[in-house]
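Hello Y.,

Per our agreement to keep a running log of every chain we model this quarter, I'm adding this entry. I've kept the format consistent with earlier entries: sequence first, then predicted structure.
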Amino acid sequence: MISKEQLFVKRIFDVVLAIAVLPIVLVPMFILILLASIDTKTFGVFQQERIGQYGKTFMMYKVRTLRIEKHVLGRLDESASAFGRWLRRHKLDELPQLFNVVLGQMSFVGPRPDIKGYADLLEGKSRIILKVKPGITGPATLKYKYEEQLLAQQPDPEWYNDHVIWPDKVRINSSYIKDWGFWKDVEWLIKSV
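Predicted structure for the entry above:
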């Protein structure tokens, strides 16, 4: 299982890599945020409370991909624009999470940060996934990189997520933490790119 020393090494790696990558992606990230602001007609950064290390909550940042449209009946609908779908397909909406890494809320590799009602409710041995910072990418993220499409094919997407995908993610992420290695993180990053 990952030790305190290994967590420290993981954090140093995250900080060094984030400082190296940020100057390269900063201008493109701000251009994407500007385009998303124009496209969605609202500020182009989306923020949402997520569950982090040790079950603590934090605000995760993304480039906004959803438009909020008001219909005649006064109902609000969220729908991804063509630009938003392109951002999601190429995972460019995740770029602002580099700031979450710098702030120490996330790691480059680890379990994806979930909304309340999932990781924070884990019990027993499954709580191991809260030992590490959530990641921008990781083994479960790569396995389920087409999760939205997979869920769209299900007659009951919520049931499928809660009873098939979520338990599998917990298993994959638990194994990742138990068998953590520095070079394995490097390998997951390369696979993600």
